[in-house]
User: Fold Crooked neck-like protein 1 from Sesamum radiatum.
Amino acid sequence: MTDLHAKRPRLTRAKNKTHAVIQIAAEQLFREAREIQEREIRTPKHNVTDATQLGDYRLRKRKEFEDLIRRVRGNKSVWVKYAKWEESQEDYARARSVWERALEVDYRDHTLWLKYADFEMKNKFVNDARNVWDRATQLLHGVDQLWYKYIHMEEMLGNVAGARQIFERWMKWAPDQQGWASYIKFELRYNEVERARLIFERFVDCHTKVSAWIRFAKFEMKNGEIARARNCYERAVDKLGDDEEAEELFVAFAEFEEKCKEKERARCIYKYALDHIPKGRAEELYRKFVAFEKQYGDREGIEDAIVGKTRFQYEDEPNTLLEESCGDKQRIEDVYERAIANIPPAQEKRYWKRYIYLWINYVLYEELDAKDVDRTRDVYNLCLKTIPHNKFSFAKIWLMAAQFEIRQLNIDRARRILGSAIGMAPKDKIFKKYIEIELQLGNIERCRKLYEKYLEWSPENCYAWSKFAELERSLAETERARALFELAIDQPALDMPELLWKAYIDFEISEAEYERTRALYERLLDRTKHLKVWISYAKFEASAMDEGLQESDLRESDYEQKRKSVFERALSYFRTSAPELKEERAMLLEEWLNMESSFGEVGDVDLVRAKLPKKLKKRRQIETEDGPSGMCAIYIRTGVVYLLKRIETKLLAAATDSDIAITCRYEEYIDYLFPEETQTTNLKILEAAYKWKKQKIASEDD
Assistant:
């Protein structure tokens, strides 16, 4: 052992600890790590010299493929490689057998059929290829690519009759328009116009669409058959005149007549289309008609077209601004009536939001412009009857109707409207406005009944409870207000309980009922121990000291003791029952310190400062859904420290015995150390690394 120690080199301590002139970069570390990696192992090449070696090679490869197929039978790429290897060995029977076995696994994959047929065609097995195509198109007749490939093969072989027969078989399955178009182009390539015309007849019967008829008519036009093309358009109008795409058909028909120099026919088609197509789908048609009239029409025709287009725009979206600017009351009311007659089809409020403003504009016009009170009232009543109140309602309409009656000095009718609103569709806005109206009229009993209805409909509404109690307090009904607050806080569910408790406490403080206020705080602390509750309680005791010294015989020390008692209880709770809430505990102490400082010489600041914690900056591990984040590494080599982010594992593995590599995934946070706690020693990562290094050097020196 002594000899071994004598042979080992002795590590000397670095006397000069300043940074070196030549620094080791991260690039150099990566380069060293890459150099020590093992090289990729490549399979050696074999040269086959005789038939025996060739047979052994084939046997070995087939065994490898068969073993691989047994493991991953559903992997199609393995089958394809196997079949192509057999093809490369010119063993076509075996290759064909592999293709057939692959199809047994999944015959629905059309790519297998395509590669199988390509194999047969490439090796000039035409009949076998036809057999494959027949089977493929019979099993997967919905895959157009198989039909195209089959037809292309027959056409390349010059078998036009066979290709036509395949097209006929395909057309029985009613393919899409592109399939029919391919059949027609095939016939036209061989100048079979009559056959193509017959195929077009079958095409429009199979696909009764505007695009199919337009394609048929253009085919006839291209062949100079104008009468036949016009006949196609007329038949299409008879069948598809009411179709959603009829606009495209009429435009194409009119443009056809325009090309044939039949301007009157084109004008008649445009006018017929504008009379029969719904306005919402005729925008393009109007644009084409105006352009046509500008090109071929006279001045009167152009003006009629432009006026008709403008009228179409207003008719498409009801707008009364044009009529109101003219001042014709009858036409204005007629437009409004036509607009409100378009009731939304679905009883969902999002569809009615824009519709309801038609009614609002209508009633405002009748009241402000037409000055017709009776008609305004009738419009309001009709609007309220139209809205499905069992599904949804609009508080705005109810309130506008009631305010209209108030402006007419008809209070009873306004009350009936608001009462109906509460009975049919109660809402917060309706209750608030109704109570506000009655309060302005001085009807206190009605306000109380409305508040009772309000709370009966929504007992969890803290706003209603607070306002009801505020009303009673304004009437000097202290006991009523207190009873309302008691009922409110006893409710099983409240939307904003913190506001209700605050209102109750403020009420008792305003009444100078300090004992009741303390009891309220104690009841609130039984329900929640939130930090804000403790601070509010302590602030109350501090404010009660100023008021209490003037009105009671208690000494200042008694109030001071009560205030400190609240803080002590809060600290005891956070220390024993919720030790994890250190931040809240620190905030409580800071609030206590500020309060004691505000009292000047009377405050006991030293007592609180002794309890203040120390702020410690610590680190903790980060865990996310995709694993630890913020990864870094500290790499120490020969006394030089490097910080590398997102370092690879291979680089850490390259460290020598004298190196240190430490990975960490941490984030910094603030912790609090209170005086009664004992601080545990938490050395930092670098300090631990240096300590370990020193211990190792010392042991080697010994």
About this structure: The first helix runs from residue 2 to 7. Residues 352 and 601 are 68 Å apart (CA to CA). Residues 1-6, 549-554, 628-663, 679-683 have pLDDT under 50 and may be disordered. The first strand starts at residue 614 and ends at 621.
